[in-house]
Amino acid sequence: MTRLFTSSCYFLFFLGILSGCQKKEFDSFYERPAGLGEPIYQQLQARGNFKHLTAVIDKAGYKDILGKTGWWTFFAPNDAAFEQFFKDQSITGTDNISDSLAAAIVKYALVYNAYRKDQLSTYQMAGGSEAGAGFAFKRKTAYYDWVQQKGDGVKSKVIATNRNVQSQKGVNVSVYIDGDNNNKYIPYFTNSFMSASGMNQGDYQAFYPNSSYTGFNVAAGSVVNMDVAAENGMIHEVDHVTLPLKSIDQYLSGNSNYSEFKSLLDSLKFYSANAYQTHRNFVATGSTDSVYVKGYNGQLAYSINSENYQQPGINSYLANESQMSSWSIMAPTNEAFRAYRKKILSKYGNSFFKGAPASVAIDFINSHMWSTMLWPSKFVQDRNFQLEPTTLTIGNAVDKQILSNAIFYGVNQAQYANVFRTVYGVPYLDPAASMTFLGYSDAATGIKPYITQPSVRQTLLVMPDAVLIAAGYRYNESSAGTSTSAWGYRTSPTASYAHNLIYKDNVFRLFKSGVLITPTTELSSLGGSGIVESQSGDYIKYNGGKIQTSGTVDSGVDLNVTKSDVSSVNGNVFYIDGVLSFTEKNVGQHLQNLATKYPASYASFYWFVSTSNVYNVTTKAISGVNQGIDNKYTMFVPDNAAIAQAIKDGLLPGTKATGALPTAAPTNEAQKDMIRKFILYHIVNGESIVTDGKKADNFLTLFQTESGDNTLVNVLNEPNNLLITDRAGRSATVTVNTSNQLSNRTIIHSINNYLNYNK
After folding, report:
1. Rg for the chain (alpha carbons), in Å?
2. From 3.90.180.10, 2.30.180.10, 3.40.50.12370, 2.30.290.10, which CATH number describes the 587-751 domain?
3. pLDDT tens digits along 39-72
4. Could you tell me which CATH number the domain at 40-142+185-238 has?
5. What share of the chain is helix, strand, coil (3-state, %, to 5)?
6. Distance between CA atoms of residues 445 and 513, nearest Å
7. CB-based contact 232:68 (threshold 8 Å)
8. Does 401 have pLDDT greater than 90?
9. pTM score
10. Which helix (H) or strand (E) holds 548?
11. pLDDT in tens, 686-717
12. Nearest 10 degrees: CA dihedral of 31, 35, 39, 41?
């Protein structure tokens, strides 16, 4: 028993020694490093020139946080900074700083994680990896706004969104993320960032004219002592007190110079009730009122009250991107806003956008929004959300601010958006041409991107709504479906509208027929005469103010210009009194009509066509000449004298001695094949060519050799002088006064010689 007791004592003694050694090793491993400074609060207290700051920290309730735990970067204003702050704010001292103001000062100076100066300019990607040295100029602070307890005049309790509102098929959808407090970011400017961004001192001082750029600035302040290591972070001493910067929403709300622009933005506010924030607010305040997340229409580039940068048009969110990215916005002053509103809404009675299409307000605002940072030195280079450079200069910026979520410019002139200043804007801003605007803006027509280019000259023919309605067309969104269209048509005033997709294709062709292709200069008048191709591939003829299409050729009624608009930067717009109709008749019908109207030019050729095996007597179709939007043709018709010569030369059946036509339709297969080849070789396949001097090349014909090879004719084209050369080197000239005839996707010319297919 004694021996057992003695052994136990030895064991316990040895265990105590071992435990003591282990504790010493543990303490040694985890002991405070020899050079590590005290926590942030204690260091500020010990340095002696942060008396005001430590008092503010105490008042804010952050003494324990900064004196014990965490891992922070603190942009610490010194006493001199506070003395100037007291003077600027008419405050007698820290005793007169409210608890809420104290908390705002401290929390906005407090950045999550500890950063030396050289680390601050590095963008931190999600997951902790670093990329883009010199890219970053902001960090997330501990400060955030929460629920507006007094609401915003619409809802009694409101919280700013922390993500852009999404627009899904025109419907706004809130994507607010619970748990993200929408913290504000604080800006700073280092040599590394300025160099990597291609900026200079002038960029900084444009926003902070009373400050000097020193190579390390925090907002309007300069860092006078940097990289002070503390147990719980890093201290950078600054000579300026920075209050939490306002978001775009907050800045505009508090500045009456932009009240009209802000009213327009407010007309696009979007609210969604949030149960999580409602519960949080109830726990904090006892209020049972619902809390609404406020954002802005998802068709805008971004929500102006979100503190988290998000690339416009991209629903996903990239964490930390706000470190290196920021939006930009130009806000017209009230005077500038009213002047531009009067200009673009004159046909709507200068209303406050209420009578105009909803998209007008969206386009107006988006033209003033940039997806990126618009620095003063790059003011005229970077493109806005609509991918357009500004129409202003930095001299138009009468107010320049770095805000918490954007670069802000108050401007004394509105940005002239391309959708308003180009020919596109004429029907867009005219309530009498709303159907034309709907057609132009539909991506299926491809019209909008073509005519909104300021440097490309344009001529438009616009059909007013009254004209389209009288012709049987309408637009009714409720009629759109998987197999139907919003575009409808009725055959008579008493008939019902049908919304088949074919009618959408038809009306789109009408709109595209009014977009004339004039690549060098627009038509200043339609008083002269000429023929012009349109975006639809159809040609339009004009003469003395009269307009002719393939459809009006059938009806025999030309169109008239009723008025013109020459206010656009890239061309002219002419309103017309009828529909730019297109023929649905086959080319044989028009060839027959021309044979009657101009017999010397077309009669003999038509005789061969009408008696050939490539012609359908009932439908008037010529084999190989197809209808449809993808088909275009040119028919070169030898006149009667040329046909007679072709008969004499043995290329067509008839009396060789005199060149007379056969007395009856040939029945001999060899002769029928001869006629077929002759006809098809005189039809260019895939292109419509007129005497405008534009299209000149080797062109395919409809004729193929017995071995299946394609055949070509060469066209030399000068204005009113079209020369066609065949495979044998024979040439023919277009007779202008009887040519440029409009048919179904086909131009018909009279030529003074035949083309030889037989070489």
Report:
1. 39
2. 2.30.180.10
3. 999 999 999 999 999 999 999 999 999 999 899 9
4. 2.30.180.10
5. 35, 25, 45
6. 11
7. yes
8. yes
9. 0.87
10. strand 546-548
11. 999 999 999 999 999 999 998 889 999 999 99
12. 150
